[in-house]
Design a protein that fits this description.
GO molecular function, one term: hydrolase activity, acting on carbon-nitrogen (but not peptide) bonds
Family: Belongs to the polysaccharide deacetylase family.
Function: Is involved in generating a small heat-stable compound (Nod), an acylated oligomer of N-acetylglucosamine, that stimulates mitosis in various plant protoplasts.
CATH class of the largest domain: Alpha Beta
CATH architecture of the largest domain: Alpha-Beta Barrel
GO biological process, one term: carbohydrate metabolic process
Mean pLDDT: 91
Distance between the termini: 19 Å
Number of strands: 12
Radius of gyration: 20 Å
Low-confidence stretches: 3-9
CATH superfamily of the largest domain: Glycoside hydrolase/deacetylase
Number of helices: 14
Keywords: Signal
Bound molecules: zinc ion
Strand content: 5-15%
Structural class: alpha/beta
Helix content: 40-55%
Order of helices and strands: HEEEHEHEHEHHEEHHHHEHEHEEHH
Largest sheet: 6 strands, parallel
Number of domains: 2
């Protein structure tokens, strides 16, 4: 997700929890399982305007997050094995699964070597239309557009206006307006309008996908890694809760066959794009289940308790967020305490 508009991240209290070692006083909060979410894994950027910064962590931070998780006694498993592991866990056993959304090229280059070093399985959630270069990532397009321009012309619904984006503050404001526009009008329509404006402003949205997202050939290569698993992240990266039943089914079913073809592995899980409450609920979970998938992950923060309250088609996840790249924050997240207050 692209949670600039809807941040699901736990900012307040993380530092406090890390400092006071509160986890020792609320041991039950940690649960039996945790699923981490990542997007980009790559060296830190030095750019001043980076509205998607929270979607990027460094390989070093991933390495220290894995170490901390293993030091805390978590057993790493593939997401598709998590339910079985948690259900059959012996006392005091707890499990972790790592997931990466959107299928970024840097996942193969920078993240996979770190996972291999620790022999930790990982699941990539792949967007079929990005792999095939038929769809674009509006949040990256909006970033490139607002970064490269001093202004641009856009119709947010009240006629064409000039949007200033000379200063970083103006760039942020313009980015947020574009994000809100995508969220409030028909998503396909909004994305195509953004792409048209980007194209006429010298920003090529398809080239961004080409630069950032794994193609079929690289997926084939990654498929031979026994630690790598693959899950569905739809065709178009649309908000599934906003599309009709027929489209919903297509967005889930078509990527299953494509992923099997590209990677040689049958996907068993889905990450609902955006993952927040208004992007996935019982209808989307049921469609995924009927398509033969056995796990669904959201971006709602939380841990898995190993009780009948767990909904395996709408699991919570914990974001390893680019804005909080400290080992002590990972320890605070593992304590489960931050989610008691949400
Ligand atoms: Zn995504």
């Amino acid at each position: 997700m692209h949670p600039l508009v809807k941040q699901t991240v736990i900012s307040a209290g993380l530092e406090a929890i890390a400092q006071t070692r509160a986890g020792e006083f609320l041991p039950g909060a940690a649960g039996r399982g945790i699923v981490f979410t990542l997007h980009h894994v790559r060296p830190a950027s030095t750019r001043a305007f980076e509205p998607n910064r929270l979607l990027s962590v460094t390989p070093d931070f991933l390495d220290s997050a894995i170490r901390e998780t293993l030091d805390q006694g978590y057993i790493p498993v593939a997401l598709e094995d998590l339910q079985n592991a948690v259900s059959n866990a012996r006392e005091n056993e707890k499990f972790v699964a790592f997931t990466l959304d959107d299928g970024c090229r840097d996942n193969a280059r920078h993240a996979a070597p770190v996972f291999r070093k620790h022999a930790v399985p990982f699941t990539l959630f792949i967007t079929k239309g990005l792999v095939e270069r038929t769809h674009t990532m509006w949040w990256e397009t909006a970033e490139a557009l607002t970064r490269s321009r001093d202004d641009f012309r856009f119709d947010f619904g009240q006629g064409i206006e000039t949007v200033d984006c000379r200063s970083n503050a103006q760039k942020h404001r313009a980015f947020i307006r574009l994000a809100r526009f995508i969220e409030t009008v028909d998503e396909d329509f909004a994305v195509s309008r953004l792409n048209a404006v980007a194209n006429s402003s010298g920003v090529d949205p398809i080239q961004i996908v080409e630069d950032e997202i794994l193609d079929a050939e690289s997926l084939r290569g990654l498929g031979s890694d026994p630690l790598a698993g693959f899950g569905v992240h739809t065709i178009s990266h649309c908000n599934l809760a906003r599309v009709n039943d027929q489209r919903l089914q297509r967005e889930i079913v078509e990527p299953i066959a494509a992923l099997k073809d590209w990677t040689g592995k049958e996907p068993k899980s889905i990450a609902y794009p955006y993952g927040w409450k208004r992007a996935c609920g019982e209808r989307e979970a049921s469609a995924a289940h009927h398509a033969g998938l056995s796990a669904g992950v959201t971006t709602r923060p939380g841990v898995i308790h190993g009780s009948c309250d767990d909904n395996w088609m709408l699991l919570p996840r914990v974001s390893l967020n680019g804005l909080y790249q400290k080992k002590r924050y990972v320890r605070a997240l593992l304590s489960g305490i931050p989610f008691r207050f949400m």
